[in-house]
Every structure is written in structure tokens, then in C-alpha cells.
Please model this.
Amino acid sequence: MRNKLRETKFKSAIFLARDLFVAAAIFLWVGPAGATQPATVTGGGTGTFYADLDGDGEIDGSHFGFAVTRNPNGVVLGHFMCQMAGNRDFLGLKLMLVEGQVSNASFTPASVTFGGTATVNLANGTAFTELPFNVTVTASGPGLGTLQLTVIGAFDGVPGDTIPGDNNYSLPVETVVTGLISIE
Model:
């Protein structure tokens, strides 16, 4: 009787080990493909380029805020705002505001690239409307999160443009100073 009980416990342990092995194999095989992909990115705060892009003797940066969501049907909705204002003058302007609706996005667990059309207001009576833009962000807080803005088809070659001659205003990567960028 005692040997029979020992044999049953041994078989149970073998079956349990087999079942755990099979479950682990299925999880590793199906898990990443079946995992829920990120569908929301939000952020707000201030950033720095760690450089004086416009030659005025000050380190440049911006204030930013955005929220972008991709619904289960793949439709992307959101809003983006980036301004150089107040304590952050830029290109000799008291304000440079890029604000627009987000209509497309590409999500990964660590970064999101999104875009749409924006109005660029220079607060000197000049505003440009319906300008396409792209933004790439990485998730995290101060010193680690990043944001990179490109205004497409305008401002090519002005100070701060990292790729003169491409017909775009491609700002360098900006690092979060205060605030947070979150991808969920």
C-alpha cells in the first residue's frame, strides 16, 4: 500500500512537471504575439535640447503636452501641443506654438511616433495652418523620456533644424526635464 502511494505521488509529480513544461512552452510561443499592444500615449511637462539652438546664449527647450489613443478598430485620435514661450524664448520670438490634431500613430512598448496637422503660431501676427507634423516620444520622466518634433514642409534651414535641405523643420531630440511621458 505504501509503495502504491509513493508510486502515485511520483506519477503526479511527473504529470505536473509535464503540464507546467507544456504551459510554459505555449506561453512563450503565443505570449508575445497575443499580448496586448500599447494603445495610449500621454505626456506633459518641459524639455531641454541641452543646446543653444538659436545662438542667443540660452539653453533651449519647450513646454509640451499631448494625449493620443488608438481604438481597437485602429482609429487614432489625439491632440499635441509644444510651445517655446515665457521662460523659453526661441529664435528671438516671444512665442512659437505648434498645436494640432493627431490622426496617425505607430506604437511600440518603448516609443510612439504620431502625427497629424498643426497650426504654428509665431505670435508676431504670423500663423501657419494645416502644416503636417510628426513627433517621436520615448516613455519615462526627467532625464530619460524624450520627444522629437518635425514640422513637415516648412521652416527648412532655420536655426535648430538638424537636417537642412530636406524641406522640413527637424528639431533635435529633446529630453524631459519635468513631467512624464507614459505609454500604455
